[in-house]
Amino acid sequence: MFSDDELNGWFRREVLSLEPSLTAFLRGHCSQKDEIADLRQEVYEKALRGAGRGLPDRTAPYVFAIARNLLITRARRARIVRIDSVADIERLPMHPDWLTPERYLSAKQELARARECLEGLPTRCREVMRLRRVQGMKIREIADHLGIGIDAVEQQITRGIRLLANHMLETAAPSDAEGASASVGKPREGS
């Protein structure tokens, strides 16, 4: 590892010298101009944190890759409707013919079960699942964000999906569970 003086020297010498071109890059790719300074600070923070694990061979591509990934993540988040914002189905505008009362109640119960299960996942697994399934981050972005390997992210996603599916099957309404267990592993008639 590097001493704080070495890391700070690298940062001042190689990263801060990129500020004019980094600012121009962010201005050219960010629709909200008032966020440029905040974005630049976030790039600096990520660059410094990442360099703490090892200085990059080439600083400029490293810094601009961080900026690009940050812009992509922000754009994706702006387009994604978070599960928390639609969790209360009662507040969603609906046409009366869309759902019967039974389907409405069933959907509300399923959403509550899914939210309950997500909250019951182990901490790391829950965090990875939220970043992947709720916020829409890519596996590489999650790995970078959490400071873990891609394999670890993939294992947590696999584990999370398995635990969610098991929980949803275990807590399914009796008629749903019977239908699911009756069809699992059995060939369909006429197959």
Question: Describe it for me?
Answer:
With 191 residues, the chain is an all-alpha fold. Helix content is 71%, strand content 0%. The longest helix has 21 residues, at 59-79. It starts with a helix and ends in an 8-residue tail after the last helix.
Helix content: over 70%
Total number of beta strands: 0
| Sequence of secondary-structure elements | HHHHHHHHHH
Report the C-alpha radius of gyration, rounded.
Answer: 23 Å
Taken from the alpha-carbon principal axes, the silhouette is elongated
Q: Name the structural class.
A: mainly alpha
What is the count of DSSP helices, taking H or I runs of 4+ residues? 10
> How far apart lie the N and C ends?
62 Å
Sequence stretches where pLDDT stays below 50 over 5 or more residues: 84-90, 175-191
Average pLDDT confidence is 77
Question: Per DSSP, what share of the residues sits in E-state strands of 2 or more residues?
Answer: under 5%
Q: Can you summarize the main beta sheet? A: none
